[in-house]
């Protein structure tokens, strides 16, 4: 019977055949231990010389790392194995013999591993991170589908900037200038006016020359937008969503978290509601902690980490100064110097994972913002139309997938949280 490693628990005591790769092996004089992987998981195959025969045993000893094979054996329960099972090997058929596989069990430098990213993905650690990434994506769709959202796909090629910045990748769109999208948000606002509650999930691009462990040039964003929803309601949705994906990973990826040696006790506590601190309070706290920062300055990684260390859950920092936030954010009703916004800071030094706000819904105020930010009213007329024809209170946010994967999986650098990272000095492979 043909099966997969993830399904062997259904076949205890039965003889099965699995298509697999040889991740590693070791042998004594009488027993060979084959570490096997098939994409769904990892399992140890135990081949006993006395049972399999001299010829099969010798062939097993000659198997090379990452050779592919069909392997046949009996599924046994084994409490010592991470998955709870192992395979008593009866025989195997080599599909392809791999020679001189470059990533050996020894230590390799980061640049070497990144040059061989197409092969490094096969390792147990990278496999675990990718499975956790997949579960976050799956849980995202479940959460928003169950809460009445419609998936909408904004364009990747745009004629203008969502944030009004210059950190854009420029290209030619026939005889016009175009840019790779740095956010689908403005388009999602239009979709929300048509469909009520919407979300997008897609790639975004930032031409920032940053080398920090939190930054990628190309990354994926989940961007919900909600009509008839104010800032407070949006914060409640954000903490419900983040709680849901964390608990989903805990439930569905225990082997992957174990492989990464993740301290799951820190994740088990991630349940709504989350603590909140205003920007004003954050500035005062940082000054008390000895940081040289003045009101009106944005927070860097050390500041966010210091604030997050006060809490054992993600923390919202609310009501940032208007001058350091995007043009579309709605002013605070009681203060014209701050806006109705929040950043969600992950624990354990992983930084901002969500940025969100209530959006300006007044046509005249948005025109004023265009002038203040030197934005072309012609290029943004369609966005202004959303306030001209049936404007409503509305809010939205964006969650960066890779930073979230990094935090939940306990991975230090975002380059390991996406299959093929695009970094400042890396476009290969």
Automatic annotation (TrEMBL):
Tell me where the signal peptide lies. Answer: none
Tell me the GO BP annotations in alphabetical order.
asparaginyl-tRNA aminoacylation
- Write out the annotated subcellular location: Cytoplasm
* TM annotation in the entry: none
Catalysed reaction equations from the record:
tRNA(Asn) + L-asparagine + ATP = L-asparaginyl-tRNA(Asn) + AMP + diphosphate + H(+)
Q: What is its EC number?
A: 6.1.1.22
Q: Which UniProt keywords apply?
A: Aminoacyl-tRNA synthetase, ATP-binding, Cytoplasm, Ligase, Nucleotide-binding, Protein biosynthesis
State any GO CC term.
Answer: cytoplasm
Domain of life of the source: Bacteria
UniProt-listed SUPFAM superfamilies = Class II aaRS and biotin synthetases, Nucleic acid-binding proteins
Please give the Gene Ontology molecular function terms for this protein: asparagine-tRNA ligase activity; ATP binding; catalytic activity, acting on a protein; nucleic acid binding; transferase activity
Per the database entry, which stretches of residues form a coiled coil?
none
List each copy of the Aminoacyl-transfer RNA synthetases class-II family profile domain by range: 130-429
Please state which protein family the record places this protein in: Belongs to the class-II aminoacyl-tRNA synthetase family.
Oligomeric form and interacting partners: Homodimer.
What protein does this entry describe?
Asparagine--tRNA ligase
